[in-house]
Design goal:
Elements (H helix, E strand, L loop, with lengths): L1 H9 L5 E3 L6 E3 L5 H9 L1 E5 L7 H8 L5 E8 L7 E9 L2 H9 L3 E2 L2 E2 L2 E4 H14 L6
Antiparallel strand pairs: 1-2, 3-5, 3-8, 4-5, 6-7
């Protein structure tokens, strides 16, 4: 039922196409590699937020470094996963992301446990998985 509502809302979009049966949605134009790499190079990983942190407060903590395009609060698996205390923050440009990593971010007066570029986080996690392949993801 919800899928039908979404499909109906998107049927006149110029950015996406909806299949005739309304079960599939895809972009009209492929996202180019430049956009995807720019997106990743302007994204940071940050860890050390309290469990009760609010999205708006997290976003506000990063705005002093530059315009924030998106904040993704990481959650445990499951329909209503608990906040893990870590986020991915995408800035509108790469310079702001680097300023945030170098800036010594504090949240509610406390320094965060870890702040790094997303690419560095992905490399770190890959190395951890390679060193301990039996650990849960």
């Amino acid at each position: 039922e919800d899928g039908a509502v979404v499909a109906d809302a998107l049927k006149d979009s110029t950015l996406v196409e909806v299949s005739e049966d309304g079960s599939k949605i895809r972009r009209v134009e492929k996202l180019d590699d430049v956009s995807a790499s720019t997106f990743d190079s302007a994204t940071i990983y940050a860890k050390g937020f309290p469990d009760n942190a609010e999205l708006e407060d997290i976003e506000e903590a990063f705005e002093s470094f530059g315009a924030v395009g998106r904040v993704t609060m990481r959650r445990t698996k499951g329909r209503r996963g608990a906040f893990k205390g870590s986020v991915f923050v995408t800035f509108e440009n790469e310079d702001a992301a680097h300023k945030a990593v170098e800036g010594g971010i504090k949240f509610m007066g406390r320094p965060l446990e870890k702040v790094m570029m997303k690419a560095d986080y992905i490399k770190l996690k890959a190395a951890e998985r390679a060193a301990n392949p039996n650990a849960k993801p």
